[in-house]
């Protein structure tokens, strides 16, 4: 194989052209029910174990209960400092939380976004699901709702998150999420003034130059009860140094997670500002509905996003109603965790970036062109 100089973007697009012609990839076999799967390994396996063990210990523990227990474990443990209090401070050094839960039978959801001064975001999201006819509450009014429902108001800032923010400010607020403003956001903290409207060429260039996200880890979990009832949920503290008020994909139904008990469930992590534009988890479940297996469904979703944003970071996990599962990602080596049936321990699956996986598949099938 001869590799010639080209941009990362063109290489990605070449790989993606192969996806539709590649042989089908089977999903990992189901270990049996009950079944728990979630984004990331490492510290996030504590969430997998907590949800699974809750289901095993008491059959009256519902799929929704298990999702809440699993996500709450990561919130309490501050998994990778990207879930729960004391992580991902915004430009003003404040931590805010996003979370959602979804019932796979009724399709009812509850979510909170930009939740301030409340640690138990996934619990408040479930309260939205169970005690309102709404799907999403935001900001200070979501905080008021939480207090009305018995949740305790607390400071989400820690010494570590405060120091992280102050260090960022000392480094001239690099990097940040500002665009098309003065003074130059690549060298200054502002305050900023908007410049005249961005043209299409500049907008396109900003897409191709996007280096992806490295601080957008999210716990996104799918649970299948032994009865077959499914639920899903997500919890995150978002992107570090975000513009205050920013909401990512975590609490957005069909983006951060999605479940249809007749078909399957999906969880997502990565650059939420990009991912919510594609509703990747909704698309993944529709892929299952149309006959794809979980692995192909996940890869198709990532490929769709890469065609527009070749440098983005993403991770997708998909499970069907049997607990057969698969995952795909881009921009990093993504991992996911699962435990089900009689498994004595959680297993972690490492998923190489999709372009690399497709290249390996081409080699294994002896279908390698002379040029890429």
Automatic annotation (TrEMBL):
Segment forming the signal sequence: 1-27
Q: Which UniProt keywords apply?
A: Signal
Name the domain of life.
Answer: Eukaryota
Q: Name one Pfam family in it.
A: Asparaginase_2
> What InterPro entries does the database record attribute to this sequence?
Ntn_hydrolases_N, Peptidase_T2
PANTHER family assigned to the protein according to its UniProt record, in alphabetical order: L-ASPARAGINASE, N(4)-(BETA-N-ACETYLGLUCOSAMINYL)-L-ASPARAGINASE
* The name this protein goes by in its record: N(4)-(Beta-N-acetylglucosaminyl)-L-asparaginase
Source organism? Podospora comata
């Amino acid at each position: 194989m001869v590799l010639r100089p080209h941009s990362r973007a063109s290489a990605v697009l070449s790989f993606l052209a192969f996806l539709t012609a590649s042989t089908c990839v089977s999903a990992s076999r189901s270990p049996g029910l009950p079944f728990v799967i979630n984004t990331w390994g490492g510290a996030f396996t504590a969430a997998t174990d907590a949800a699974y063990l809750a289901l095993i210990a008491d059959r009256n523990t519902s799929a929704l209960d298990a999702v809440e227990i699993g996500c709450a474990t990561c919130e309490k443990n501050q998994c990778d400092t990207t879930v729960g209090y004391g992580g991902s401070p915004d430009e003003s050094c404040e931590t805010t939380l996003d979370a959602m839960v979804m019932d796979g039978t009724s399709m009812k959801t509850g979510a909170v976004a930009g939740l301030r001064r409340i640690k138990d975001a996934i619990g408040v999201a479930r309260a939205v699901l169970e005690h309102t006819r709404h799907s999403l509450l935001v900001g200070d009014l979501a905080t008021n709702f939480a207090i009305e429902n018995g949740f305790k108001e607390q400071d989400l800032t820690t010494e570590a998150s405060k120091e992280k923010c102050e260090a960022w400010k000392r480094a001239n607020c690099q990097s940040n999420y500002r665009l098309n403003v003065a003074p130059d956001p690549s060298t200054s903290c502002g305050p900023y003034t908007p410049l005249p409207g961005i043209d299409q060429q500049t907008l396109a260039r900003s897409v191709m130059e996007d280096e992806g996200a490295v601080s957008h880890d999210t716990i996104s979990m799918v649970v299948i009860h032994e009865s077959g009832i499914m639920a899903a949920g997500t919890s995150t503290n978002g992107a570090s140094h975000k513009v205050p008020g920013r909401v990512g994909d975590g609490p957005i139904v069909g983006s951060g997670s999605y479940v249809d008990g007749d078909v399957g469930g999906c969880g997502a992590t990565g650059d939420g500002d990009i991912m919510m534009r594609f509703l990747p988890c909704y698309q993944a479940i529709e892929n299952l509905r149309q006959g794809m297996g979980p692995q192909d469904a996940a890869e198709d979703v990532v490929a769709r996003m890469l065609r527009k944003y070749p440098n983005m970071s993403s991770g997708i996990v998909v499970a069907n109603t049997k607990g057969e599962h698969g995952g795909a990602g881009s921009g990093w080596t993504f991992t996911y965790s699962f435990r089900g049936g009689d498994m004595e321990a959680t297993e972690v699956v490492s998923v190489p970036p999709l372009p690399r996986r497709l290249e390996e598949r081409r080699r294994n099938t002896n279908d390698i062109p002379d040029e890429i």
